[in-house]
Amino acid sequence: MKTILIFLYFLCILSETTHAQSLKDLFLKMPQEVCPSLSEYNRLEMVDNQKNGKPMQTRNHFRTLSEMKELTDDYAHIAVSKSSEKELKMLPTQEGAPIIMVISTVLCDSLADSSVEFYDTNWQPLPLLTHFSLPPTDQFRRITINPTTNQLTVTSQNPFRLRTDGSDKPLEPQVFTNTFHWQTEESHFVQDGL
Question: Is residue 88 located within the same domain as residue 175?
Fold first, then answer.
């Protein structure tokens, strides 16, 4: 009987140590460098507010309001300020241990600029290109010259457009085309229509 109790005790300890961490746990352990304006106390306050059914808000280091828009076991969306957001997502890997993707977005007027970083569950940075491959550069900008008309055409496109309305439907790439003609007197290309 004593050996069975000891075995069950060790089994409980083993299951506790191998228990997968949720993003809530990792969010609380997140280093300050990942989100400098939120202290450990701020993050704890947001999680506690969720447990108590209160709005997940806190005053950050800049004395402005930060709000957790959504917090689940594998996703977090934080409005750090009126002009910046953080999204954290746990991603499964083939190796078994999940990784954390952090998307930092800065809003300027109606334009958003985002950066992506990857971390392991100990918040050690991972190389970006190991988890994300860049498309060929011709998907961003294509330059053609028509030798008969001496026109230069530059086509730029934005293949990575993310939806902000929560829909899964992908957005069509934005395409911009500018045509230039050679101006002999000035020895350079001039944009058509100007």
Answer: no
Name the domain boundary from 84, 112, 131.
131
* CB 59 within 8 Å of CB 50: no
| Whether 64 contacts 81, CB under 8 Å | yes
72 and 168 in a common domain: no
- Residue 102 falls inside a structural domain: yes
- Percentage of the chain beyond pLDDT 90 is 28
pLDDT in tens, 46-57: 999 888 989 889
145 in Cβ contact with 152 (< 8 Å): yes
Q: Clarify whether residues 113 and 158 are in a common domain.
A: no
**Has residue 10 been placed in a domain?**
no
Q: Which domain holds residue 181?
A: 137-191
pLDDT digits (tens, 9 = 90+) for 158-177: 655 555 555 556 666 566 66
